[in-house]
Amino acid sequence: MVRMKRIFKATVLSLSLLLFLSTITGNTTLASPQDNQSEIDSNERLNVAHRGASGHAPEHTIPSYELGDQMNGDYIEIDLQMTKDGVLVAMHDETVDRTTDGTGLVKDYTLEELKKLDAGSWFNEENPEKAKPSYEGLEVPTLEEVIQTFGKDKRYYIETKSPEVYPGMEKELLRVLEKYELTPENEERGTVLIQSFSKASLLKMHDLAPNMPLVQLIHYVTPATITNQELQEINRYAVGVGMSYNQIDQEYVEKVRESGLLIHPYTVNEKEDMKRLLDWGVTGMFTNYPDRLDDVMDDFEDEDENEEDED
Known about the structure:
It is a single chain. The protein is α/β, with parallel strands linked by helices. It is 35% helix and 12% strand. The protein has one domain (11-310): Phosphatidylinositol (PI) phosphodiesterase (TIM Barrel). Strands 1, 2, 3, 4, 5, 6, 7, 8 and 9 form a 9-stranded mixed sheet that branches. Mean pLDDT is 89; it is low at 1-38.
């Protein structure tokens, strides 16, 4: 099947967005990130390979990222931690215990020490049906190594994890992106998206690189609600939001979309949930199984085409 560009039927949504924005007065800073958002296709549904194709390979390793790319993931998703000597590395946890054969905090390791750890054998032990000898002894990659491997032709979705633990993380991240010409000044806006649960971290990035598209992650422990005031505040510095998919409903999705923000829930692994979220109007989602989401999105597009033909 020829893969088609993933778009929504946007006419009604665009009208509702214009009506919503037209009601906002007295806040000229609200629309500043949106001034350039036309460069990001808000009608594209993103298949974000969560930590790579982490349902099939050891998370945050080069093989996992490669597999996610082969399974038609739209973005290479990278969680960042920082070593004792100030190098940004791809790892979800603040500690190395879960995904390597080491123990302790990432910040207490130099890069040289971190590189000695085995970041793949744990996956073989936990997933014997998917185990591969090549996963044994995998290294923790640096952010630069990931970019060097995949280059400027790929898109990157980067999260600043625990930025309060790593002073200067945002400045170092921007240095790396500038080194490889991946900032909006050098590449199409949206080639890199930066997300964080930390509003302070995103505001630092916004100050350092005002045109960098940012996504505010939100943690909900109860069913999600969001006010117009909260949406207006997020709109001042970010282009989207992300949250656990199992805490949101259709009303929440529609309210976020009507505010002009993108919405990328995480971590969606079952096809039934994927289909429901697409029906609700999300602009993408994170999944450990980008191959499953790719299948669902293809089916969803076929349904859209059939409806258009009937019209």
